[in-house]
C-alpha cells in the first residue's frame, strides 16, 4: 500500500506544480501583469463589410449593434472579476466612428486549423487613443461574418449535414500603444485552439426533407425575429442589482475572461518561495521592459469555397447529395 501511495503522491504534486500553469499571453505572464494595470475596453464593433450573407443583412447588423450596447458592460464586469487589472473601464467613444478611425486592414486567417477574421489597427490613432484615456492597453472586440465548413446534426441525432455555413463570430485583442498584440481571442497559447460561433445564421431543414420523403436538405437562414428571440434568452449579470445579460454574450465573455485570470499556486511552499522572491525583487532597482512588436505575416484573403452539401444517415449507408439552394424560413 505504501509503495502505491508514494508514486500517486508524486504524480499529484507534479500535476499541481505544472499542470495548472498556463500562459495565454503573447508575452510572459509576469510582464503582462506588470505592464497592463489600466485596461480600456472599446465598445464592441460590428464589421458590416465582412462575410455576412443573411438576406436581411442591414437589419441583422443593426440588431447586433443594439445588443452590443446592451451587453458590453458585462464584458467589463467579468474582466474586473478576474483580478488581473487594477482598473478596467469602458470607453465612451462611438463604436462605428472608433472602428473606422482605427481599423487599418483585416485578413481571413486559418491558423492552427482555426478559421477567423484578424484585424490590424492604425498605430498613430491607437497611440492617441491609449494616451488620451490614460491607459496601459486597450481591448478591441469585433463581431464579424464568416463562412466555414461545419457539421450540424438533426434533433434526433440520426442524421447530419456537412457543408459550408454562415456564422457570426466574435474576436478580440488587447494591444498596447505601440500596436503590440499582448493577448488575443481566439487564443493560440492553449492546447486546443478553437473559435466557437457567436451566432449560427443558418441551419439544415431536416424536417422538411423528411416530410417530403426526400434526401435533399435545404440550408436556410434563421429569421431576424428568431435571432432576436435567441439574443433575448438571459442569464444573471455580474453587474450589481438584478440586471440580466444575453446568454449568447455570457458564453463568449466567459471564455475570454477565463483566459485572462491570474495564475494560481496551489502549493503552500511555492507561495512562500514566490513571496520571498518578490521581496528580493522589490529591493532591486526598477528595470524597463520592452515588448517586441509581433511579426505580422501579410496574407491574402482566402475566398470561401462552397462545397456540395453531403447528408449522412446513421447507421444506414452514407449518401452524398447535391448542393441545395439556400432558402429563408420564417420561425413562428
Protein traits:
single chain; 332 residues; Double Stranded RNA Binding Domain; eight-stranded mixed beta sheet; 33% helix
Explain briefly what this protein structure is.
This protein is an alpha/beta fold and 332 residues long.
Question: What average pLDDT do the residues reach?
Answer: 81
| DSSP strand content | 25-35%
What string, H for helix and E for strand, traces the elements in order? HHEEHEHEEHEEEEEHEHEEHHEE
Strand count, sense and barrel status of the largest sheet are: 8 strands, mixed
Query: Structural class of the secondary structure composition?
Result: alpha/beta
CATH architecture: 2-Layer Sandwich
How many helical elements? 9
- The N- to C-terminal Cα distance equals 64 Å
Shape: globular
**Total domain count:** 1
**CATH third-level topology:** Double Stranded RNA Binding Domain
Number of DSSP strand runs: 15
What's the level 1 CATH class? Alpha Beta
The share of residues in helices is 25-40%
CATH H level, superfamily name: Putative neuraminyllactose-binding hemagglutinin homolog like domain
Query: Which spans of ≥5 residues are poorly predicted at pLDDT below 50?
Result: 9-20, 266-308, 316-332
Radius of gyration: 23 Å
